[in-house]
Amino acid sequence: MNVLEVEHLNVWEERSGRNLVRDSSFRLAQGECLAIVGESGSGKSLTCKSIMRLNRNGIRHSGRIALNGEDLSILSDKAMRRYRGRRLCMIMQNGMSAFDPSRPIGAHLQETLGIHYDWSRAEREAKLAAAMIAVGLREPAAVMSRYPFELSGGMLQRVMIALALVLEPDVIIADEPTTALDAVTAYEVVEQFVRLRERLRSAMIFVSHDLGVVRRIADNVLVMKDGEIVEQGAAREIFSGARHPYTRYLVSSKETLSRHYKWLMGGVDVAQG
Ligand SMILES: Nc1ncnc2c1ncn2[C@@H]1O[C@H](COP(=O)(O)OP(=O)(O)OP(=O)(O)O)[C@@H](O)[C@H]1O
C-alpha cells in the first residue's frame, strides 16, 4: 500500500482566487524517496505545506491527501497536530526558523518528544543523545544546552534529522534542507538523509534545486512548473531521457552543479565528470 497519496491537489490564494498549484497527483510507497524539483515559485513548498496542513492564512487547498489510506482532510486540527511530528515530519530549509529562539535546543526537543511519546525525561534525553551521536553531533549534552543562534546551519539540520530519527515518522518531508548550506556541509547533510532513510525505511519527499543531490537520494522525481506537474517518473529515466522540454532544460542547466557535487562526493574530475 502507498504510505502517502495526493490526488487532485489544488492550492489557491483565497483573496484573489489565483491558482498556485493545479491538479497535482502523486503517490509515495514505503521507503521511497520522491524528489520534487522545479524553479522558484513553481509550487513545491505549497505542495509540502498542504500535506502538513501548514499553509498560511489566506491560502486554501482541496483534493485528497491520504496517509496509509486515511484521508487527512477529515481530521480535526487537534488530530492533525498529533500527526505532525509523530507521523508526518517536516524538515525546513532554515534550521533557525524551526526552533524557538528563546530557549535552548534541548528544551525544545524534550517538549516535542513529550507531546508524542510517553517517555520519561531521562528516556527522552537518552534517545536524543543516541540519535545526535548517530548523525555526527559528538557532544549531545553541549548541543542541547545551546540556543539555536549558537549553532551553525549544518548543525541545526543534523539536530532536525536526529529528532526525526527518534520520532520515526511514516513520512519525512524535507523542503530544500541543504539550500542554505555551503557545498561541503550540504554533502554531509545529504549523506545523513541517506542514512536516515536506510535506518527508518520512512517514505521521504525531498525538495531540492540541486539535481546532483536529487541524483544521490531520490528513487523518483516529480518536476513542477508554474504550479503544475509537468513530468514524473523514475529518477534514472528523468535524468537520461526526460520527455518534457522543461525537464530537459533543468537537467542540462544543472549539469555544472551536478559535476561539482560528484567531484565532492567521489573525486570525479570536474572537467570530465
Ligand atoms: N502565503 C502566500 N500568499 C500568496 N501567494 C503565495 C504564498 N505562498 C506562496 N505563494 C505563491 O505561490 C507560488 C508557489 O510558491 P511556493 O513557495 O510553493 O514555490 P516553490 O516552488 O517552493 O519556490 P522556492 O523554490 O522559491 O521555495 C508562488 O508564486 C508564490 O509567490
Task: Please describe what this structure looks like.
One of its GO terms (cellular component) is plasma membrane. Keywords: ATP-binding, Cell inner membrane, Cell membrane, Membrane, Nucleotide-binding, Translocase, Transport. Belongs to the ABC transporter superfamily. This protein has 273 residues and is α/β, with parallel strands linked by helices. The chain is built from 12 helices and 10 strands. The strands form 2 sheets. A 6-stranded mixed β-sheet has the order 6-7-8-3-9-10, sandwiched between helices. α4 crosses α5. Residues 269-273 have low confidence and may be disordered. Adenosine-5'-triphosphate is lined by residues 13, 20, 38, 40-46, 56, 58-59.
Quote the distance from N terminus to C terminus.
39 Å
Strand order of the main beta sheet, please?
Answer: 6-7-8-3-9-10
Percent helix? 40-55%
* Helix-and-strand structural type: alpha/beta
Question: What integer value in Å does the Rg equal?
Answer: 19 Å
Keywords: ATP-binding, Cell inner membrane, Cell membrane, Membrane, Nucleotide-binding, Translocase, Transport
Subcellular location: Cell membrane
Domain ABC transporter: 6-251
Protein name: ABC transporter ATP-binding protein
